[in-house]
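Q: Sequence in, structure out?
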Amino acid sequence: MDAAIPVTEISRFHENPRQAPVVFVVDDDVSVCESLELLIRHEGWQSETFDSAQQFLARPRCTAPCCLVLDVSLPGLNGLELQTQLRDRTNMPIIFITGHGNVRMTVQAMKAGAVEFLTKPVEYDVMVKAIRGAITQSRAAHRHDSALQTLRERYESLSTRERQVMELVVSGMLNKQVGSELGICEITVKAHRGQVMRKMKADSVPDLVMMAVRLGLRSLPTH
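A: Exactly. Output:
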C-alpha cells in the first residue's frame, strides 16, 4: 500500500462513530500501518494497528462488526499462522496483504477462509472495496450470532417436559402420538405445545421445525 493516501479520495459517507466497525491492521511496516489507518479513518471506520501477531492476540475479542487486514510476513508468528489461530472468529473476515505473494500462499489463505489476498502496493479503491465487503460479511455474521443466541435463550426457558414435547412435535408426531410416547393425555400435550409455541415465538409448526434445525436439535423432516 502506498504510504500517502490522497485526501480527495475521502468517502462522502461516514458511519456514526458509536456504531462504526473496527478495522484491525497487523503489519510490521510503520508506513503501511499509517497509510491504512488514514484510509480507514477517512472512510468513517475505527482503526487499530499492531506490529505483530502476538500483540494482536493480546487484545480482547471485538464485539462489534470488524475485519482484519493482515500482512503475511510478520516477525515471530506469521500471517498464515495467525489466521489458523483465529479460525473460530468467524465474524472477523481477514484480508491478506503481502509484498511477496505466490500461488501457494494465496490458495492456503483462501482455503482457510480469507476474503481477499492483495499484493502491495494496494490501490486505494481496491482496499476500500475489500474492507467494505469484509465489514458487510462481519455484520451478517454478527446478526446471525445474535439471532442464534436469542433462540438458545428461548429454548433454555422451556421446561424439561416442554422440550420433550417440542422434539416430538418437530419430528412430525401428532398430539395423540406425543401423548402416547410420553405417557400423558392429549389435552396436556396441547397445553405444553401451546407453551412451547409461545416461548419460542413460533408462528407455526414448520417455523418451530426450522428453529429446531438451527439449534441443532434435529434434521429437517424427510416428508
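The longest helix spans residues 124-156.
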